[in-house]
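Anyone up for a design puzzle?
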């Protein structure tokens, strides 16, 4: 059953990418579907990471909500970094903090780490088990719990529903 889930997800992802990157005609869709199906059949056994994706209405809703939450955090942090750069005194307190994640799936942790890295002012340096080491442009707290709330919790509550 897990291989079937990975097969279906990889087919949908590849077909979606094909449609985004090509002209949407009937012939293009047929060719894209066949190529996507072939690639999915060949490689789905190696895509164990897709097994953790939850396919239910709640997870779909959280996926859509996550996009907006990510964009909001991206905008807020971009403004914050821009203000710091334009400020004559450059108010920064950079360093690396250790945060804890509740996410159990590998894919969930990857998406969390990438979301943190894509947000200006933070960058995931290393991931070890349930801990992530984050370079933070302005450390507000080096306590694990406080840093986790400040950096991780906004993304994590949605990713937990999506990936577990």
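Challenge accepted. My sequence:
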């Amino acid at each position: 059953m897990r291989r079937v889930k990975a097969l279906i997800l990889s087919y949908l992802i590849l077909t979606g990418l094909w449609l985004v990157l090509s002209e949407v005609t009937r012939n293009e869709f047929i060719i894209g579907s066949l190529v996507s199906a072939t690639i999915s059949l060949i490689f789905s056994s190696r895509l164990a990471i897709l097994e953790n994706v939850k396919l239910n209405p709640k997870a779909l809703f959280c996926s859509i909500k996550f996009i907006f939450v990510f964009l909001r955090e991206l905008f807020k942090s971009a403004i914050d970094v821009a203000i710091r750069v334009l400020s004559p005194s450059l108010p920064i307190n950079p360093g690396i903090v250790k945060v804890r994640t509740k996410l159990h799936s590998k894919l969930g942790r990857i998406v969390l780490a990438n979301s943190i890295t894509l947000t200006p002012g933070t960058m995931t340096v290393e991931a070890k088990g349930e801990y992530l080491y984050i370079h933070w442009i302005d450390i507000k707290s080096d306590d694990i719990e406080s840093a986790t709330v400040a950096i991780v919790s906004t993304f994590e509550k949605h990713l937990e529903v999506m990936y577990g």
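A detail worth pointing out: The first strand starts at residue 95 and ends at 100.
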